[in-house]
Design a protein that fits this description.
Bound molecules: zinc ion
Order of helices and strands: HHEHEHEHHEHHEHEHE
CATH topology of the largest domain: TIM Barrel
Distance between the termini: 23 Å
Largest sheet: 5 strands, parallel
CATH class of the largest domain: Alpha Beta
Number of helices: 10
CATH superfamily of the largest domain: Glycoside hydrolase/deacetylase
Shape: globular
Number of domains: 2
Radius of gyration: 17 Å
Strand content: 5-15%
CATH architecture of the largest domain: Alpha-Beta Barrel
Helix content: 40-55%
Structural class: alpha/beta
Oligomer: single chain
Length: about 240
């Protein structure tokens, strides 16, 4: 992202977040509609990984792209520097449970532990932050949703990178299906997915897309996130 555009985007997001905090109605015309830029959010699950996440962060920085990382708590130990680097380089960090168990139908006490232990570790490693949640496999039942105090983030484009493990096929799927406001699901623990992320960014930037965090994406499209609700895209 070039500097004037980054400053413009920052001001728009800050203004909208301020408006939301003050409980004033969101303008009927979302900021994204005022801009010719198409915004999209890349999300990376299941990391951090000392094999692949550093290379991904390098490539995102080279391209001026922001992303969102949903981290597995048990994989943070030993990778604290990578996690702080995500924060320092403007990416959003989220909670993907402690050890990637399916949270659906889980007793509430156990579910609380899965979410809270990762949240507490993120607070220790990265400091205060609102670490939004992506439940493993995107599954959380109604009882569980009532217990979480964060927005729940799903996705609208899923190239099944974990299955394909092929950068060209993953890129082709995303290029075929993506629309402005989408949340794209990838996994930074696979080298092919990191390669795919770079191909996707390079191709979509040529089409006028910019890569923002999920929080920025929702704000840009006038979506006000609420606790315990699922969001799969900004549309
Ligand atoms: Zn996952």
């Amino acid at each position: 992202m070039n500097r004037p555009r980054a400053v413009f985007l920052g001001i728009m997001v800050a203004a909208l977040l301020f408006v939301c905090r003050e409980d004033v109605a969101v303008p009927a015309t979302a900021w994204a509609e005022l801009s010719e830029t198409k915004f999209v959010a890349l999300t990376f699950d299941d990391g951090p990984s000392d094999n692949t996440t550093g290379r991904l962060l390098d490539g995102l920085r080279e391209r001026g792209a922001s992303a969102t990382f949903f981290l597995v708590g048990s994989r943070i130990s030993g990778n604290e520097k990578l996690v702080r680097r995500m924060r320092d380089e403007g990416h959003q960090i989220g909670n993907h449970s402690w050890d990637h168990k399916e949270l659906k139908d889980m007793p509430v006490a156990v579910l609380g532990g899965e979410i809270d232990s990762t949240d507490e570790l993120l607070l220790t490693v990265c400091g205060e932050g609102d670490y939004w949640i992506r439940p493993p496999y995107g599954l959380l039942d109604k009882g569980g949703r009532g217990k979480v105090s964060k927005p729940l983030i799903l996705w609208s484009v899923d190239p099944e990178d974990w299955k394909l493990r092929n950068a060209d096929k993953v890129t082709a799927h995303v290029m075929k299906h993506v629309q402005p406001g989408d949340i794209i699901l990838l996994h930074d623990i696979y080298p092919a997915s990191v390669d795919a992320a770079f191909k996707i960014i390079d191709a979509l930037e040529k089409q006028g897309y910019e890569f923002v965090t999920v929080k920025e994406l929702l704000a840009l499209y006038g979506v006000v996130p609420q606790e315990g609700k699922f969001y799969a895209s900004a549309r």
